Amino acid sequence: METMLRAHVVVSGRVQGVYYRYATRAEATMRGVKGWVRNLRDGRVEAVFEGDMVKVEEMIDFCHYGTPDAKVSSVEVTWEEYTGEFKEFSIRYR
User: Fold this and answer.
1) Per-residue pLDDT tens over the stretch 11-65
2) What is the CATH number of the domain that holds 21?
3) Catalytic residue list
């Protein structure tokens, strides 16, 4: 039986203007993880991942390096209650 999880993630560093959100969406879609990703006004990137525990943990691992031009300095993870509210993984604009 799959263990379903939800992770709220905030990534700091050089993560805007380096295709980080698009790569995150591609990785999540490939793994069947649902949720969203967006840029924050302060230069960080925020995401919510929902899905199978192994796949969500793979997405958190991905967040530590992102794209070749990204320079990740920290990844903050908050575990939340799984809701199943998302049908896909999307990029949010604010």
Assistant:
1) 999 999 999 999 999 999 999 999 999 999 999 999 999 999 999 999 999 999 9
2) 3.30.70.100
3) 21, 39
Length of the chain: 94
Chain-centre distance for alpha carbon 89 = 9
Q: How crowded is residue 92: how many other Cβ atoms within 10 Å of its Cβ? A: 13
Q: Order of strands across the sheet with 4-14?
A: 71-80, 4-14, 45-52, 34-39, 89-91
**Residue 47: which domain range?**
4-91
Number of domains in the chain: 1
Q: What is the pLDDT of residue 66?
A: 95
